[in-house]
């Protein structure tokens, strides 16, 4: 009788362990199923490529007349529309795309030139902030 109870306990323990293992695998599959795949999207204006999720690509395309544009170009297009509300989004996109194509046509390495230009813009922006008396300082923490 005692031996049968021990066998039963072991069987229940084994089944419990299998159920826990199965539950953990199922939970992991659900978590991994929620991770979105990324794909490469190419900017319709400047041609830069970024890795994005499908959801993000669709959101950007909805905002820009079905075109995917990088963050830098999207800001330029939004600024153009904001400056002149009579300019339609598609016209602003076309104008910026034409500008980018002309810019890229005059450069041997367009992406490198764009990166260098952005660096110069950031430098000028920092210089303007510093000249206006805005000081950036680092704080120290004491233990």
Automatic annotation (TrEMBL):
InterPro entries: DUF1677_pln (IPR012876). It comes from the Eukaryota. This is DUF1677 family protein. It comes from Phaseolus vulgaris. The lineage of its organism: Eukaryota, Viridiplantae, Streptophyta, Embryophyta, Tracheophyta.
